[in-house]
Design brief:
heterodimer, A: about 475 residues, alpha/beta, eleven-stranded mixed beta sheet, ten-stranded mixed beta sheet, 11 helices, about 35% strand, B: about 260 residues, four-stranded antiparallel beta sheet, 8 helices
Chain lengths: ~475, ~260
């Protein structure tokens, strides 16, 4: 049944529009650039100082390696190729900010059109803030949410309009000193979403943002902050696609989430970076008493992804769910996983990781489960499944466990499988081609993930996976 | 297609991992006919089924198989299926995350081809009706394909697929194994509903029991990878009553198995 393996060179969203940016920072990272970014955004002094302090941190901190980092005792490959001087740190796409779809610049609209955003919005969205290059150009929010007192805007706007909330929470979950990339983001961040959900308010439809970077060698450093106040519920959805570049591009976001007592927050991401993007993201949530944090995280594409959505369960009875899939193809490394920390009694964490590697791709599950001294009665269940599609592709599982309390339960289960000859034979004997049969097995494999997505994302996800898998089996 | 289906197997030889298992099978099955393939364990019955469907482990070393005049052995597994061949398997695979209904609809549409997909309502109506006739619970359609199914459920699922896909030639590989008598009747009833000049059937079985419910027109006994005896339904009855020893004696066979290390 051997067939030629056609390589996937063409990237689905690999179209590139004419550059319409108004301002573009020079390459490399200097104090002047950080000051310039802050000035262009009309930022208050405290944010400028925050950025400058973060820049100092960034200069001071080394890149993580196996000597200076316990977490990276086995370092993902390819990080050494990253040249911080070769990146543009800020691009402002236009002076104006679109309020309605009609006001959005034509070039940008065309790009969104290709991604089908307006239709999606009509059908489903509660509010959209679509990030194009570094700044939010289009933002729309349903009146309903506003009436409930929900704040959903880009983080730049939030700095100006909600200084009290920002000063109180910004940088508290992921401080600039957390890691080199968090420091970098803190110095040059731009865009991202800010959400505040008041006490007891339940947002019934997901809040969504689309991200997209479109300029050669352009870093994107969005910064997202979500505060779910006591007893509230919010589901935030973020989908990313990027066009092809000739040289490497860096995406280094920071996401901070505070889930207060008995609140619930779900954060869903699908990322589909083109194969030259470094995707180095710090995502962390703090869950207070009885709070429930869910990360649903899909990573497809990129050159190297290093992303470990974290939940610090600070209050008694807090819950954490991390559900992720990673797909690595040719020349790609997905180094992803989860970090859960229980600092209070009776916390519960569930980690489900599904990885697929193909055409020489590499997937690593890197996970931390940590139980503090006060975590009696807490439990964590970790399940990692990997599907390897050919002999060139690989997978690793690197679990770290820290246990400081005897009265806890930790379960870890890992499986590695291949698409079996018998499964293929079975499906093909019913008339499906080898490609269709393979796709069906893969779709089934990631079904625990896709079934958690809002419907239209599930459809998009299936489409992406199908596209990714075309001809990938010999 | 309105012509009567016809499967012609001519001098088929098959090896598994270099070991010859089938040593020249000749058989012709036409629409409307039910052929029973019987024989003790290890004589090559299931190899015949898997080789006809095209399992990659089974290597055809000689012979020819034509389905409606087309060279079956030149086709990929899925092409054989789309040409009208169906194999109800003894050990169907489990596919996690794929529901029975989704799978069946994909399989039906694969046969119908692009632009000619079955309408969802029509599909659901038919599926419900067939599940009812097989006394399968409604929840079946949303369960994952064979995952966690009992032996009996798997067999019923194979017959459900058979009923939904309506092949021209159906091979049933030990669908009776692991079934209690009630389940056996239901499964046989499902097959009988389909019997028509539009479909030919090859029933592979170890026991006569199934043949009380699916009545064969022809019975063939396989030993040492060959059809050593053929007859009508009365042959099956005699095998049930007397076992296989008299066949061995009559033909001077000492060891009826094939390709096994002893």
């Amino acid at each position: 049944m051997a067939k030629q393996i056609p390589e996937i060179e063409e990237y689905r969203y690999g179209f590139r529009d004419k550059d319409v940016s108004v301002y573009r920072a020079k390459r490399g990272l200097t104090r002047e650039i950080v000051e310039e970014i802050s000035r262009m955004k009309n930022e208050p002094e405290w944010m400028l100082q925050f950025r400058l302090k973060s820049l100092e941190q960034f200069y001071k901190m080394p890149l993580p390696n196996s000597h200076n980092s316990k977490w990276f005792s086995i370092l993902p490959g390819k990080l050494d190729d990253l040249n911080f001087d070769d990146i543009t740190y800020y691009v402002k796409p236009s002076e104006r900010k679109g309020r309605s779809w009609e006001e959005v610049p034509e070039e940008i609209k065309k790009t969104f059109d290709k991604l089908g955003i307006p239709e999606a919005e009509q059908k489903f969205l509660a509010g959209v803030s679509a990030q194009y290059e570094s700044e939010v150009v289009y933002h729309n929010m349903q009146k309903e949410l506003e009436d409930q007192g929900v704040i959903f805007c880009d983080t730049d706007t939030a700095v100006r309009e909600y200084p009290e909330l920002l000063k109180e929470y910004f940088g508290t979950v992921v401080p600039p000193s957390d890691n080199k990339f968090a420091a970098l983001n803190s110095a040059v961040w731009s865009g991202g979403s800010f959400i505040y959900v008041p006490k007891g308010v339940k947002c019934e439809v997901p809040l969504q943002a689309y991200f997209r970077i479109n300029s050669e060698n352009m870093g994107q450093f969005e910064r997202t902050l979500i505060i779910a106040d006591e007893g509230s519920f919010v589901h935030y959805v973020e989908g990313c696609t990027a066009p092809i570049y000739s040289t490497d591009s860096l995406h280094s976001a920071v996401v901070e989430i505070i889930v207060k007592d008995h609140a619930r927050c779900r954060y869903t991401t699908i990322q589909n970076w083109s194969a030259n993007v470094y995707n180095l993201v710090t995502k962390r949530a703090v869950a207070e008493r009885g709070a429930h944090m869910e990360w649903v995280d899909g990573n497809i594409g990129s050159k190297l992804t290093m992303k470990y959505p974290a939940v610090v369960m600070k209050g008694e009875g807090a819950k954490a769910d991390v559900l992720s899939i990673a797909v690595a193809g040719k020349n790609q490394h997905q180094d992803a996983g989860a970090k859960v920390t229980a600092l209070a009694p009776n916390c519960t964490a569930t980690i489900v990781s599904k990885s697929i590697s193909k055409q020489g791709g590499k997937v690593t599950y890197r996970g931390l489960t940590s139980f503090g001294r006060n975590s009696a009665g807490s439990k964590a269940n970790v399940k990692c499944d990997t599907l390897i599609l050919d002999d060139q592709s690989t997978s690793d599982t690197i679990p770290y466990n820290e246990i400081k309390n005897d009265n806890i339960i930790l379960e870890h289960e890992a499986t590695v499988s291949k698409v079996s000859e018998d499964q293929l034979f079975y499906l093909m004997s019913r008339g499906l081609t080898e490609d269709e049969a393979t796709q069906m097995i893969i779709m089934g494999f990631i079904e625990p993930f896709t079934k958690e997505l809002p419907m239209e994302y599930a459809v998009e996800m299936n489409r992406l996976i199908k596209y990714e898998m075309e001809g990938s089996i010999g | 297609m309105t012509t009567t289906p016809k499967l012609s197997i001519n001098h088929l030889k098959v090896s598994v991992e270099g070991k010859p298992i089938l040593n020249g099978i000749d058989l012709e099955i036409k629409g409307g006919e039910v052929h029973a393939i019987m024989g003790p364990n290890g004589t090559g019955k299931s190899t015949l089924a898997a080789a006809l469907m095209g399992h990659p482990k089974y290597e055809v070393t000689d012979g020819q198989v034509l389905l409606d005049g087309q060279d079956l052995l030149e086709m990929e597994v899925d092409e054989r299926a789309r040409a009208g061949l169906f194999l109800a398997m003894q050990y169907p695979s489990e596919i996690s995350g794929v529901t029975n209904a989704d799978f069946l609809r994909s399989a039906i549409n694969a046969r119908r081809g692009e632009g000619n997909e079955v309408s969802l309502m029509k599909f659901i109506r038919e599926l419900d009706q067939k599940m009812e006739s097989l006394e399968i619970d409604q929840s079946f359609s949303t369960r994952y394909l064979n995952e966690g199914f009992s032996g009996g459920e798997k067999k019923r699922n194979e017959i459900l697929q058979l009923m939904m896909l309506k092949p021209r030639i159906a091979i049933l590989d030990e669908v009776d194994s692991g079934l209690d008598i009630d389940a056996l009747k239901i499964v046989a009833n499902g097959v009988n509903q389909l019997l028509s000049p539009e479909m030919g059937v090859m029933v592979i079985t170890h026991y006569q029991r199934l043949l009380n419910y699916i009545e064969p027109h022809y019975v063939h006994v396989i030993m040492q990878g060959k059809i050593v005896k053929s007859g009508g339904p009365e042959l099956a009855k005699r095998l049930e009553a007397e076992g296989y020893d008299w066949v061995k004696e009559e033909l001077g066979i000492e060891d009826e198995t094939v390709g096994q290390t002893k």
